[in-house]
């Protein structure tokens, strides 16, 4: 009988991507079957996130629950991976000695060997090193039935924003060789994928080697991906303002396959706070990128991440952020209260902002952005939208669900053979979290 595997994942899209690779790997190399039930699993893996403290607390709660299973099942393997694993390493075993394997985001490809060793030798294994790019050479070919797929192009981050744990948990930026990426996207396209989402902490820092030893920029990579047959829409997450260069804007101008929706985190609208965050750009520089983008793509929608309550953020700094939000007219965005992360410079900055003030700021910011997002949705009523049909709607089996270029979910009546295709729908109703539409017969 095949062994059973359960993988639980928290955190960003990169963690989701890594987990899908772990599953592929154990499925292909070790014939593991996936299960949703922890009590029937032989291997339980957690892929963790440490971007804010709540994410980290989740790990120990979950381990507490799994510990009981271990008492009832001899030989059950428990592994912890992801960013908390790199951050805490050995400490995880100090607090939870029943954990068998601790692996990092850059060593997950070694899991089959680690599991085997742990089963045979009954000794704990810790491998949270950062071997350069070896990961991609060791992963199985992608397999998917979906119309949209994520492809990692750059790992790690070298920006060291003063508040952020990622450079310490994922290592420095390492670009994947270009041929490797193009080969993977070709394989995905042959499996029916129509939309690609290029992944990395800072995708526009991409500097990949070609087989002839030249360096390929992010703009060049975008053009190459757009030339792959079958790929009709391209997205990327996340890009950083400091490397959002004019050659990337030029790709927006002449390559319609690049989606008119950009997630470009700004974090704050105050130059003082941006400097303290070590973001390396000013508000004017950010606005100038958006102005140039809107010159070539007048309807592009922009989303962002914001941190409120950063140490030293005054009422005036916060008002500057609110002003930027209105000036840019951001669409749906992510926003968080500053969370001091161990070992980061900002965790030592003195902060006297009362908790209630932080909460009020977050509430005000989210309310404004939500209203702006609703306005964008309202403007879509009665328009024609090109959507990628992703599957059956969760609400009713008569309905399909699809995604618009600006990332809205649309449900509409249609036949199953439309799944995986781009089609046109007319938007007939705006609901609070999705849109309703009607198929336009072509
Ligand atoms: N590389 C991307 C985002 C990485 S993390 C970028 O630089 O934009 C995702 C988001 O988490 C960040 O954009 C930031 O808004 C938030 N974040 C990171 N560290 C944080 C912290 N210490 N406290 C609160 N939010 C944080
Ligand atoms: Fe963190 Fe800054 Fe790197 Fe983004 S760019 S992952 S916020 S250090
Ligand atoms: Fe979390 Fe690590 Fe992603 S800290 S946000 S899982 S890079």
Automatic annotation (TrEMBL):
It catalyses: 2-thio-N(6)-dimethylallyladenosine(37) in tRNA + S-adenosyl-L-methionine = 2-methylsulfanyl-N(6)-dimethylallyladenosine(37) in tRNA + S-adenosyl-L-homocysteine + H(+); N(6)-dimethylallyladenosine(37) in tRNA + (sulfur carrier)-SH + AH2 + 2 S-adenosyl-L-methionine = 2-methylsulfanyl-N(6)-dimethylallyladenosine(37) in tRNA + (sulfur carrier)-H + 5'-deoxyadenosine + L-methionine + A + S-adenosyl-L-homocysteine + 2 H(+); N(6)-dimethylallyladenosine(37) in tRNA + (sulfur carrier)-SH + AH2 + S-adenosyl-L-methionine = 2-thio-N(6)-dimethylallyladenosine(37) in tRNA + (sulfur carrier)-H + 5'-deoxyadenosine + L-methionine + A + H(+). It is an enzyme of class 2 (transferase). Residues 378-441 form the TRAM domain. [4Fe-4S] cluster 2 binds at residues 157, 161, 164. Its cofactor is [4Fe-4S] cluster. One of its GO terms (molecular function) is tRNA-2-methylthio-N(6)-dimethylallyladenosine(37) synthase activity. It is found in: Cytoplasm. Monomer. PANTHER family: CDK5 REGULATORY SUBUNIT-ASSOCIATED PROTEIN 1 (PTHR43020), MITOCHONDRIAL TRNA METHYLTHIOTRANSFERASE CDK5RAP1 (PTHR43020:SF2). HAMAP family: tRNA_metthiotr_MiaB (MF_01864). Catalyzes the methylthiolation of N6-(dimethylallyl)adenosine (i(6)A), leading to the formation of 2-methylthio-N6-(dimethylallyl)adenosine (ms(2)i(6)A) at position 37 in tRNAs that read codons beginning with uridine. This is tRNA-2-methylthio-N(6)-dimethylallyladenosine synthase.
């Amino acid at each position: 009988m095949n062994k059973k595997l359960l993988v639980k994942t928290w955190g960003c899209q990169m963690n989701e991507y890594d987990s899908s690779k772990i599953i592929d790997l154990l499925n292909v190399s070790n014939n593991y079957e996936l299960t949703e039930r922890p009590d029937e699993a032989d291997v339980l893996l957690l892929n963790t996130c440490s971007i804010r403290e709540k994410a980290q607390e989740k790990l120990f709660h979950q381990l507490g629950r799994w510990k009981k299973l271990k008492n009832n099942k001899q030989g059950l393997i428990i592994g912890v991976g992801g960013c908390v694993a790199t951050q805490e390493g050995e400490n995880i075993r100090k607090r939870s000695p029943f954990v068998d394997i601790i692996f990092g985001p850059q060593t997950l490809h070694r899991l089959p060997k680690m599991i085997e060793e742990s089963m045979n030798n009954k000794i704990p294994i810790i491998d949270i090193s950062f071997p350069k790019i070896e990961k991609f050479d060791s992963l199985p070919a992608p397999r998917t039935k979906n119309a949209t797929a994520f492809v990692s192009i750059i790992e790690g981050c070298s920006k060291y924003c003063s508040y952020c744990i990622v450079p310490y948990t994922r290592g420095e930026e390492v670009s994947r060789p270009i041929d490797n990426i193009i080969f993977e996207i070709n394989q995905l396209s042959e499996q029916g994928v129509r939309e690609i989402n290029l992944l990395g902490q800072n995708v526009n820092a991409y500097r990949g080697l070609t087989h002839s030893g030249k360096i390929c920029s992010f703009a060049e990579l975008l053009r190459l991906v757009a030339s792959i047959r079958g790929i009709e829409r391209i997205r990327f997450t996340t890009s950083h303002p400091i490397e959002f260069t004019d050659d990337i804007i030029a790709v927006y101008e002449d390559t319609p396959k690049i989606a008119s929706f950009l997630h470009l985190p700004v974090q704050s609208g105050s130059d003082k706070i941006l400097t303290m965050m070590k973001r390396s750009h000013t508000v004017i520089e950010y606005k100038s990128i958006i102005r140039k983008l809107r010159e070539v793509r007048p309807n592009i929608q922009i989303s962002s991440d914001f941190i409120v309550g950063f140490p030293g953020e005054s009422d005036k700094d916060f008002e500057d952020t609110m002003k930027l939000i209105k000036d840019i007219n951001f669409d749906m965005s992510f926003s968080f209260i500053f969370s001091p992360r161990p070992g980061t410079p900002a965790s030592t900055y003195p902060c006297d902002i009362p908790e209630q003030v932080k909460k009020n700021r977050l509430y005000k910011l989210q309310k404004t952005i939500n209203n702006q997002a609703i306005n964008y949705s309202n403007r879509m009523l009665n328009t024609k939208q090109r959507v990628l049909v992703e599957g059956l709607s969760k609400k009713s089996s008569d309905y399909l669900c699809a995604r618009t270029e600006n990332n809205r979910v649309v449900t509409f009546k249609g036949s199953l053979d439309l799944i995986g295709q781009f089609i046109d729908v007319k938007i007939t109703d705006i609901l609070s979290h999705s849109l309703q539409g009607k198929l336009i017969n072509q």
